[in-house]
Amino acid sequence: xxxxxxxVGGRVCAEPDFKTNEAFPSALEIQIQTRLNKKxxxxxxxxxxxxxxxxDRALDEIEIGDFIIILGRIVTTDFERTLLTECPxxxxxxxxxxxxxxxxxxxxxxxxxxxxxxxxxxxxVGLNKLFLVGNVCTPLKMIGATKNAVKFKLAVNKRIGKxxxxxxxxxxxxxxxxxFALNYIQQRSLISVEGSVVQxxxxxxxxxxxxxxxxxxxxxxxxxxxxxxxxGMDFMTTGEPxxxxxxxxxxxxxxxxxTGSDL
Length: 263
Ligand SMILES: [Zn+2]
Description:
Helices cover about 15% and strands about 50% of the residues. The chain is mainly beta. It has one domain: CATH 2.40.50.140. It has a 5-stranded mixed barrel with strand order 6-8-10-12-11. Zinc ion (ZN) binds near residues 89 and 92.
């Protein structure tokens, strides 16, 4: 069982562009400002359009400044990144390949709002909603200086033709959702998730030993990371490992029903 739905709405804040999505070199990228009111800082989410006829429609219809609602899904891609690096000591150039995992939102359809609809929408905080059903596929990891968040990956199944595949987005949980996850969730739990997509740019260092002068070279690489900020989470099955323990009232009921049995 799986579900993978993303709804993103806001103002188109850059000209749609076949820029440099390394995972999808021929994709059209649309950047959307999803936080629209003044109380919140700008929040940009970019979406890729992969389907040729949808790309044609997007190029025809979408302009910078338009208000748009995108229906899509999360896709994760493994690819090899090619880096051309130059050693700062000896000037030796090297072509390296590194393994990258990238998470994107694929646009499956879009709607442009009319002038009147957009006027109402402008006052809102935009739209950034995501619904997933999948299996927890990594151990839970506490992150942050105060361990205030929990991070793990979800495997969300999909079918491409006859082939069964999966997308593997990272999920981050704070507050009560973090506590729920730590108490009840473990690897393989089948869960439903409600959240939003957060996007940020991070600078990572790729390092290697120069084959010419044998010194260590560190090259900064800019990565756009997209993760799921989880607001709500629930189990999709009962009786599985990691399932929520019975509430004390349920346990009492069961005990009274079972009076006289071997239990
Ligand atoms: Zn060197």
